Here is the input.
Amino acid sequence: MTQATLPLIPAQPPKTSGLAVASLVLGVANVVLLSCCCGTGFIPAVLAIVFGHVAQYQIKRSAGRLNGSSLAIAGLACGYIGLVCQVLILLLGALCFLVSAVAGHQHAHMNVQRW
Here is the structure.
């Protein structure tokens, strides 16, 4: 009796997750927007974070058919760092506005008392 051999099917290489690439691109765009025009990076930051988490989930569940985990992690890092910087810039701007408003109010009040 001879043993039957199964035809060999070539294994396909894993594909890179499109969401992981999108997460990285949006994370880098967030950092670029943060450096040149503050306040416009919220949308790319949030999208980079969402796409990065979804990509990580899909890659883990794909049983080796998808790769790009490092791209998703880099996108997540850029997204989170950019989002934290955006929030800090927003808080700093609000603080400066409040300080200048209080100082302007006190200055106007002092001018009224002199007359």
The mean pLDDT is 84. The CA atoms of residues 11 and 65 lie 10 Å apart. Strands lie at 15-16, 66-67. The helical segments are 18-36, 42-61, 69-114.
